[in-house]
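Notes for week 9. Today we move from apo structures to complexes. The key idea is that a small molecule is not decoration. When we ask for a structure prediction with magnesium ion present, the ligand SMILES becomes part of the input, just like the chain. The input block below holds both the sequence and the ligand string. Read it once before you look at the output, and try to guess where the molecule might sit.
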Amino acid sequence: MSVARRTTILVADDDRSHRLMLTTMIQDWGYAVMEASDGGQALDIIRSKPVDMILMDMRMPNMDGIEATRAITSYNPSIAIVIVTAYSSIPTAVEAVRAGAFDYVTKPMDFEALRVLMQRALEHTRLREENERLRGQLARLQVPELTGTSPAMRKLLEMIALVAPTDTTVLVTGESGTGKGLIARAIHANSPRAQKPLVEVNCAAIPATLIESELFGHEKGAFTGADRQRKGRFTTADSGTIFLDEIGELPLAMQAKLLRAIQEGQVQRVGSDCVVPVDVRVIAATNRDIEKMMHEGLFREDLYYRLNVFALSAPPLRERVEDIPALAQGFLAGFSKKSGKVVKGLTPHAMDLLLKYAWPGNVRELENAMERAAILVQGDYVSRAQLPLALQVLEEELDAVLPDHGLEQSVSTDANLAAIEKQAIFNKLRQTGGNKSEAARRLGITRRTLKLKLKKYDLDTEPD
Ligand SMILES: Nc1ncnc2c1ncn2[C@@H]1O[C@H](COP(=O)(O)OP(=O)(O)OP(=O)(O)O)[C@@H](O)[C@H]1O
Ligand SMILES: [Mg+2]
């Protein structure tokens, strides 16, 4: 049986009574504690025992805090170091932070602040390790096309890595243009079926009357115009993957037939009496609210659950603003190469607009904007004038509420006001990394009011 190791804090301080005081308090907080009376001893301990965090005094004999910080971070950078220092030596503490310490606290200590800082330091380390782990996983994933390192994107890539090697049916949901097609391709490419066909069927593009024969094939003479036998897409995808895009558009009658084919692993050609076994992995995608469709009787419940064995949702671009620069640069490089131009990038001003815009059309909209920009651009950099009007207008709306322009002259309608308010909220949330309390504070409203507004503007994505 394995017992979870308790988080261990090493207290390095040459002042015995101070050390004792810290030790007692930290033990009270539920951590395991070890002690060292100088930097050298601290170094010895971390070399022999697992330590999560060090609370380190700045001035110690033999090896002082800075020197110890350097030695410890180069030995094991995942140990969080919090420096304890007197006011008089803050500059040295800052130097220690530059050398790799997480942060510093000043003596005399505010214990509650120390406790919060320690939690933050530990959380930071945990996240960093998590990132390293994910990076390792991603290196093994082959999805060169899926750009993005935001937390939302990493989470998604992690899920893809988990589900790809299996035969599990996957339902990919997400707004239009979020990359559902790419996700399906990434799953196939990272599956044992990668060398076998990936057959894509856009359910919205095939007339209802033809979809059955399209999916399952037909016999010669099965219907008017069927002048020869035809293989269906399921058969073409045999031993590979079938990607049923826009599954929400599938007529109810077809849903029943599809369910049967998936459940039984066999298909029946239109006009044929016999069934043919197929070995196909199914990935489906939709931008419709399929659960709602199910409740409204527009989508079969049994098929929904059959498809939704593993659900993946593609995050909208506005929820991963961090990815915008890399995506924009990537698209721009691709399109300018095609048109034989050398475009170095975007002006800071133009990039700023990309970051502020809410991208209702998601990555596809960004891609189109960059394609257009690559055509219009004259010099080395894409500037504001080469961006779509929606982005240029956005800036005027924001400008209009800046105090020095005066409020009266600018805002004409309620709709305008709402748009500006929504954008302001969106910006603050982005600036604060999604911290609602802080965003509310900066907006000068209560957290409760912010929550109500988030609901109103449909920006509220997480449950309470
Ligand atoms: N993470 C990404 N990195 C790079 N390109 C992306 C990414 N996500 C989407 N794209 C690009 O954006 C465009 C739209 O993606 P895709 O067609 O997969 O979206 P979708 O979710 O299937 O949209 P729809 O619901 O409208 O079919 C594609 O050209 C795709 O290559
Ligand atoms: Mg698509």
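The chain is about 45% helix and 15% strand.
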